[in-house]
Amino acid sequence: MDVYKWYKISRKLYIAHVPVIPMLIKGAIRILWGGVIPYQADIGEGTIIGYQGIGVVIHKKCIIGKNCHISQNVTLGGGGGPKGGLPVLGNQVTVGTGAVVLGNIHIGDNAVIGANAVVLCDIPANAIAVGVPAKVIKYNNV
């Protein structure tokens, strides 16, 4: 079974106020695939979590748009500090293997984040960002 389907089941149960089962599913995902995909996160329909979410860590208050592709070993988390905040990914965003998105970051629709990029600032729609720290290198022609 696809890890995204496990997430969707736990999310539906969480929204229906079923107390324990969502936590058990989250724990099963952690044990089976070594990822943290919490039922509290808002992950849009059609999102693909690559390689069953191996090493993927998503903060429980993250918002991920529809039809995104999250590769393995990706971290979407809070930046801490005085600003705090959490990442918000638009629709059809692709996040490459090992990328890290930290803090109050907004990534626009159709953006691509390269492998092992560290995103510390907003990325506009249709942009391709790579590097440490991530910088926009070009724009997609959509």
Q: Do you know the CATH topology?
A: UDP N-Acetylglucosamine Acyltransferase, domain 1
Question: Strands of the largest sheet, in order across it?
Answer: 2-5-8-11-13-14
Largest sheet: 6 strands, mixed
Strand content: 15-25%
Low-confidence stretches: none
The CA-CA distance between the termini, in Å, is 33 Å
Radius of gyration: 15 Å
**What is the average of the pLDDT values?**
91
Q: Tell me the total number of β-strands.
A: 14
Please give a structural write-up:
This protein is α/β, with parallel strands linked by helices and 142 residues long. The protein has one domain: UDP N-Acetylglucosamine Acyltransferase, domain 1. It has two helices and 14 strands. The protein has helices at 3-15, 21-33, and strands at 42-43, 48-49, 57-58, 63-64, 69-70, 75-77, 88-89, 94-95, 100-102, 106-107, 112-113, 118-119, 127-130, 135-139. The strands form three sheets. Strands 2-5-8-11-13-14 form a six-stranded mixed beta sheet, with no helix packed on it. Strand 13 (127-130) and strand 14 (135-139) form a beta hairpin. Helix 1 (3-15) runs antiparallel to helix 2. The longest helix is centred in the N-terminal third of the chain and has 13 residues, at 3-15. It is elongated. The mean pLDDT is 91.
Summarize the structure.
With 142 residues, the chain is an alpha/beta fold. The protein has one domain: 3 Solenoid (UDP N-Acetylglucosamine Acyltransferase, domain 1), CATH 2.160.10.
